[in-house]
Request: fold
Amino acid sequence: MPAPALAPLRAARAPAVVNLPLPRPALARPPSFSTREFRDALGMFATGVTIVTARNDDGALVGLTASSFNSVSLDPPLVLWSLSRAAASLPAFANGSHYAINVLAADQKALAERFAARGVDRWSGVEHSPGISHAPVLAGAAATFECFNRSRYEEGDHVIFVGEVERCSHRAGVPPLLYHGGRFYTEHPL
Ligand SMILES: Cc1cc2nc3c(=O)[nH]c(=O)nc-3n(C[C@H](O)[C@H](O)[C@H](O)COP(=O)(O)O)c2cc1C
Reply:
């Protein structure tokens, strides 16, 4: 018996366009959560850990631990990180022409803690060398991005820095230092 003729496929009906006016508020709703809840939620985003370094106007070494690093653009090569307005190092980074972003290796946890602490000599015994524009490059880092201080954006209680990478290097296969929920980790491949 011949197969029954298939019914012709009916073109899917296009959804009716509903021209409802979308609300376009000029301002965000006030937060429905505490700062603690916000921090805890942000802490679920695991990051690497960097130490961002520079020389200030007097040539003194400056550096702090920062996990806000991220990539922005491949061409031109751009990266970003953000710095608290309350940071003592803000003037050095805001006024300087260059900085270096040192991505820490797993065995540099102590450095990450030291460069986040106040009232300690952060640079005591730290092995480093001058980068192409004199920002200090830390020995043993998993990767280093030497940046021109391209632009800055003041947002809330932080300043976003966009750096144009002039030179970068990395140590292939070195386990990175990770940060998540206020604790340090290293990688555990799934
Ligand atoms: C894992 C980790 C990540 C951090 N990330 C940032 C960051 O991205 N931006 C920032 O402003 N502070 C960050 N901090 C805090 C600074 O390292 C800390 O406030 C430091 O004392 C600032 O140094 P300064 O006051 O000399 O500039 C981080 C601290 C830790 C432990």
In short: The chain has one domain: 35-185.
